[in-house]
Known about the structure:
Layout: E1 4-10, E2 13-20, E3 34-42, E4 48-50, H1 52-70, E5 76-78, E6 82-86, E7 91-96, E8 106-111, H2 112-127, H3 133-136, H4 144-180, H5 183-193
Antiparallel strand pairs: 1-2, 2-3, 3-4, 5-6, 6-7, 7-8
Amino acid sequence: MIQNKLSFHQSSVSLEIIGLPDYSNNDNKDQISIISEWKLTIIDKPLIEGKIDHLGPIMNAFYIYSSLLIKNENPIYESRLIDIKADNLYIHNIVLKSSKENVKPLILKIGNSLLSDIINCFDQLNESSKVITKKTGLSINIPKKVRFGINNKVKFFNFIMPPFIAICSLILLSSTFIYFYNPVEDKERNELINPK
């Protein structure tokens, strides 16, 4: 049986998902419900690949790490398969550990732009209608604490911005009228219209 391949691209990163549709659930022939393997290609870095049971934990790691980075907390993530920590504000160290014995861990250093591109590829995968992640056993578990913090910041920002923009607009408009208004000319005009 020919497997389907779907690719998700963002600048210098590409995520390829390989698998089959689940015909018992009336899946479309172009869909992937059973992921057999995946490959993450980053320009100038070694190829990262694995099975479905590796993809979920690695996606979780990147999501949690990037959330910690946004919250300005000490961004360190460590697990059985992957460790991520910041070298400085711009460089992130990633250690990918193999589930096979006697295989050395893969160590990568990536910048903010590559981190963003990787997250974007994972987002494209999550939002794709052609890959049914719920049936594949791929679970993305962002802790509630992290989700709550991000959602609250976005809600607060959306709540505060419209009134802030409105007040700034009023101040700008009022200052414009004050700048062009000349009370001496107004007094002279009134004396011409209504002479004593």
